[in-house]
Specification:
Helix content: 10-25%
Oligomer: single chain
Structural class: alpha+beta
Shape: globular
Distance between the termini: 31 Å
Strand order of the largest sheet: 4-6-5-3-8-7
Length: about 160
C-alpha cells in the first residue's frame, strides 16, 4: 500500500488516502466534531500553536491545520479528486457512494443512524441541509442541492454519469 502525503503545514503531513473531507472550523457542528474527537483521543492538532484554519476529517481521526482549506485542496495530488460542497468545504470524490436529497424517510433514518454511530458530518456551516452525501465511512450534510453537486463533479467521476 502506498502512502501519498498532504503537507498540512509546519512539517506535518496526513495520508491523502485517509481524507474524507476538508472543512472550515467556524460552525458549531464542526466544533462538536472536534470536541468529540478530542474526547476519544482521535484529534491531531497539527497547528503548532497557530490559529486553526481547516479541519481535515480522516476516516479514523480529525486533524487540525493552520493552512486554509483552499490551499490544502490545491496541494492535493492531481489524481485525488475533490468536490466543492459549499462554504469552504470539500469531500473526497473517490470515497463517495451517493448524493441525494434529505427528504425521504429512509434517508432520515440513515442520517439518524450515522449520528448515533458518530459518523454524521454537518458541513452546512449553519445553513439548511439540502443534500446528503453518503461516503464509505461517513454521511456528510451539505447546504448545496444535489443537482449542483453533480454539476460540480470532476469529469470522469463515477457518480457524474455520462
Amino acid at each position: 500500500m502506498s502512502f501519498t502525503s498532504l503537507d498540512v503545514g509546519h512539517g506535518s503531513v496526513v495520508s491523502v488516502e485517509r481524507i474524507v473531507a476538508i472543512a472550515t472550523p467556524g460552525s458549531e457542528p464542526v466544533q462538536e466534531v472536534i470536541e468529540l474527537a478530542q474526547e476519544k483521543d482521535q484529534l491531531l492538532d497539527l497547528t503548532k500553536g497557530r490559529q486553526v484554519r481547516s479541519v481535515i476529517i480522516l476516516d479514523t481521526h480529525i486533524a487540525l491545520s493552520s493552512v486554509a482549506p483552499e490551499t490544502l485542496v490545491n496541494r492535493l495530488p492531481e489524481e485525488f479528486k475533490t468536490l466543492d460542497i459549499g462554504y469552504g468545504c470539500t469531500v473526497a470524490v473517490g470515497r463517495m457512494v451517493s448524493v441525494t436529497s434529505p427528504d425521504s424517510t429512509p434517508m432520515q433514518r440513515s442520517m439518524e443512524d450515522a449520528k448515533s454511530r458518530e459518523k454524521l458530518l454537518d458541513l452546512t456551516i449553519g445553513r439548511q441541509v439540502r443534500s446528503v452525501i453518503v461516503m464509505d465511512t461517513h454521511v456528510v450534510l451539505s447546504a448545496v442541492v444535489p443537482a449542483t453537486l453533480l454539476f460540480r463533479m470532476p469529469p470522469n467521476s463515477p457518480l457524474k454519469g455520462k
